[in-house]
Amino acid sequence: MNDENIVHSLDTSRSERIPPGQQKTEDWPVLHYGSIPRVDVSKWTFTISGLVESERKLNFEQFTSLPQEKVFSDIHCVTGWSKLNNYWEGVSTRSLTDLVKVLPAAKFVLIHAEKGFTTNLSVSDFFEPDVLFALKHNGELLTPGHGYPVRLVVPRLYFWKSAKWVTGVEFMAEDKRGFWESHGYHNRGDPWLEERYSH
Ligand SMILES: Nc1nc2c(c(=O)[nH]1)N[C@H]1C(S)=C(S)[C@@H](COP(=O)(O)O)O[C@H]1N2
Ligand SMILES: [Mo]
């Protein structure tokens, strides 16, 4: 991989890469609520909805023809494991702004995934340059367990924000807690501040 084309997530340049309360792992556990959806890409649709000038739907071919970018990042799961040095490849969240005009009133996004899963982010966290809709991890297509065909990756927040099996993004004026955020997890989830749970 040509290093010049890779966005390095800012956390990867810290001298201490492991946030407080985390342990380094070499494996990659599969964690999620419910069962693994088997997604048929010929029927898959990505929907950009909410506070945009006009909503857009893309099929898998259209989505995968968007410009691809590479991101180098760490993973921090709220259950305590961290996996360093991941290469992701996919569509930058910023490239969506070439497809839709996001209205100024949009301050939050809700990411939608298969089976009704959601997660929420501020528009500024969503459009950070290291955030992408990943199709590949370390050069390989995602496995079904890790979110095939498309998952969001938000490198600088706990990994529950990195929704697997995504189906779209909705722009909103008000924040709305997603699935894990409504089940006791923190609304934002910065691992360096140990924003694990809401009390
Ligand atoms: N669609 C969906 N995405 C999800 C989840 C989920 O339950 N459903 N769980 C999140 C949580 S809690 C974690 S820790 C990561 C785990 O990703 P991995 O299985 O690739 O390690 O996926 C996140 N994305
Ligand atoms: Mo998690």
In short:
With 199 residues, this protein is mostly beta strands. It has helices at 60-64, 123-126, and strands at 6-8, 23-24, 45-50, 56-59, 68-76, 81-92, 108-113, 118-122, 132-137, 140-141, 151-153, 166-172. A hairpin with a 2-residue loop joins β9 and β10.
Question: What's the SSE blueprint?
Answer:
Blueprint: E1 6-8, E2 23-24, E3 45-50, E4 56-59, H1 60-64, E5 68-76, E6 81-92, E7 108-113, E8 118-122, H2 123-126, E9 132-137, E10 140-141, E11 151-153, E12 166-172
Parallel strand pairs: 1-5, 2-6, 3-12
Antiparallel strand pairs: 3-4, 5-6, 6-9, 7-8, 7-12, 9-10, 9-11
The protein binds the ligand Nc1nc2c(c(=O)[nH]1)N[C@H]1C(S)=C(S)[C@@H](COP(=O)(O)O)O[C@H]1N2 and molybdenum atom (MO).
N/C terminus separation? 43 Å
What is the CATH C level class, in words? Alpha Beta
* Helix vs. strand class: mainly beta
H/E topology pattern = EEEEHEEEEHEEEE
Question: What is the number of beta strands?
Answer: 12
CATH architecture: Alpha-Beta Complex
In DSSP terms, counting alpha (H) and pi (I) runs of 4 or more, how many helices? 2
Oligomer: single chain
Total number of domains:
1
Q: What fraction of the residues are assigned to beta strands by DSSP?
A: 25-35%
Question: What is the CATH T-level topology?
Answer: Sulfite Oxidase, Chain A, domain 2
Average pLDDT over all residues:
97
Bound ligand species: the ligand Nc1nc2c(c(=O)[nH]1)N[C@H]1C(S)=C(S)[C@@H](COP(=O)(O)O)O[C@H]1N2, molybdenum atom
Relevant CATH superfamily? Oxidoreductase, molybdopterin-binding domain
Helix content: under 10%
Radius of gyration: 16 Å
**Main beta-sheet annotation:** 7 strands, mixed
Shape category: globular
Low-confidence sequence ranges: none
